Amino acid sequence: MDAEIGKELEATVAARRELGPEHDDELIAGFLQRIEHRLERQTPPPPPPPRHTGPITPLVLGSIGLGIPVTAVALSNAPGIGGEIVAGIAWVAIGIANIAIARWR
User: Fold this and answer.
1) pTM above 0.70, yes or no
2) Using CA atoms, how far apart are residues 60 and 96, in angstroms rounded to an integer?
3) Which pLDDT value is given to residue 92?
C-alpha cells in the first residue's frame, strides 16, 4: 500500500473514532474521493489511435481504373444525356471514395 494512501486511511479511521459511526458515510465518501482524485492524476492519457499506413496510390489508381470501364458501359448502354449522367454519377462516387480513403489514413 502506498504510504500516502496509508496516511489517508489512518486519518479517516482516527476521524471515525472521534466522530462516531453516525458519520461513516461522509468519512468513507471523502476517503474514496481523495483516492479517486489521486488515481486520476496518476492515470496516463490513452494512446492515440493507430494511423493506417501503406501506399495510397494503388487504391486511387485502382478506383480510377475501375471508373474507365464503368464509363464505357454507361455511355454504350445508355446513349445521350442519360449515359452521361450515369457516368458523371459514377465519377463523383469515385471521387468521394478517394477522398474518404485519404481522410481515413
Assistant:
1) no
2) 11
3) 93
Distance CA 47, CA 72 (A): 47
Cα separation, 69 vs 29, whole angstroms: 69
In whole angstroms, give the CA distance from residue 64 to residue 86: 16
Angle between helices 81-104 and 57-77 (to 10 degrees): 170
pLDDT value, residue 105: 67
Q: Is the pLDDT of residue 46 over 80?
A: yes
Closest CA to 71 of 92, 51, 50, 53: 92
Query: What is the torsion angle, in degrees rounded to the nearest 10, for the CA atoms of residue 61, residue 62, residue 64 and residue 70?
Result: 170
Predicted confidence (pLDDT) at residue 35 exceeds the cutoff of 80: yes
C-alpha cell at 26: 461522509
Q: Are 12 and 30 in contact (CB under 8 A)?
A: yes
Residue 66 DSSP SS3? helix
The torsion of the CA quartet 37, 38, 42, 44, rounded to 10 degrees, works out to -10
